[in-house]
Amino acid sequence: MKIKVARCAGFCFGVKRAINIAENALRELKDGDKIYSLGAIIHNPQVVDELSRKGLEVISDLRKIKRGRVIISSHGAPLETLEEIRKKKIKLIDATCPFVKYAQNIVRRLKKDGYRIIIVGDSAHPEVKALNSIAGKIKNSKKIGIISQTTQNKENYIKEIGKILGEDFSEVKIFNTICSDTSKRQSAARSLLKDCDIMIVIGGKNSANTRRLWQICKESGVDSFHIETELELKKKWFKGKICAGITSGASTPDQAVQRVTRNIKTKN
Ligand code: SF4
Questions:
Q1: Cα 76 to averaged position of ligand 1 atoms, centre (Å)
Q2: pLDDT band at 74 (very low <50, low <70, confident <90, very high)
Q3: Which of 53, 86, 128, 243 is most solvent-facing, going by the fewest CB within 10 Å?
């Protein structure tokens, strides 16, 4: 059986950068000092576990800490959280991805100019929560500003824009804030789907961009499976298949992709 790995698999730029920031901070950790991450620094349990072993403690609530340093993940953090960190006088290490910062800056500008801001994305995702906190609640403006979560699927974004354009408005500003890594990753998966009859999508089950990638693969009609590690692979998936495609979410390390590739090669 042939195996093809997508052009854009492994960590994205923003995730690599966040991990480097965390590892550099952990290297400088002095006795008695503590570094916390507010929520998982990236949506990959295996990588988060590895960073925990190096000393990064994941917390869900700032009330639990009185001192130390807090890392903001690549997704950014809501304004209230940043304010709480400032009030507590805890040192902040900002690993927000520059693409996310770019989207945040657009929201700031739209808000200042009185636009009602619509964010197309998963409202429970930390990135969207942060964007929402900046957008505030301008409800009655007929000027509408539309942006997307950086990891949104473009087709879905276009569909949602179509719905919004059905509303009453005087002016609409639309921004393509889907990051270039997400676009490249999705189009690399689509081009693999043309050649493969099975797709393996690697990434955290809690990773929104991995789930979206899996969704794209499933919708193509090709048998597609979402796994976190090679241990979840099942021999029966590959029976009678000619070409297996492998892709991964933005928070999946290259080594995880290599392990899955090796495992499929040796067992099929
Ligand atoms: S997926 Fe894009 S926006 Fe998100 S962290 Fe990676 S590079 Fe940044």
A1: 11
A2: very high
A3: 53
What are the backbone angles phi and psi of residue 103, rounded to the nearest 5°?
A: -65, -40
Taking only the tens place, the pLDDT of each residue in 98-121 is 999 999 999 999 999 999 999 999
Together in a domain, 192 and 256: yes
Pair 146, 188 in one domain: no
Considering only CA atoms, which residue is closest to atom 6 of ligand 1?
Answer: 14
Alpha-helix residue ranges (DSSP H) falling in 7-58: 13-27, 45-53
Exactly one of 28, 50, 57, 127 is catalytic; which is it? 127
Our answer to whether residue 155 is catalytic in this structure is no
Same-domain check for residues 80 and 133:
no
* pTM, to two decimals: 0.89
Residue whose entry in the numeric block shows the structure tokens 């009453």: 168
Could you say which of 149, 178, 207 is where a domain stops? 178
Is the pLDDT reported for residue 236 higher than 90?
yes
Collapsing DSSP to helix, strand or coil, 73 comes out as coil
Q: Residue 268: which pLDDT band, with cuts at 50, 70 and 90?
A: confident
Q: Pairing relation of β-strands 91-94 and 69-72?
A: parallel
**Could you say which of 178, 196, 220 is where a domain stops?**
178
Mean pLDDT of the chain: 94
Residues 113, 172 within the same domain: yes
Helix (H) or strand (E) holding 201, with range, is: strand 198-202
What is the predicted pLDDT for the residue at 171?
A: 97
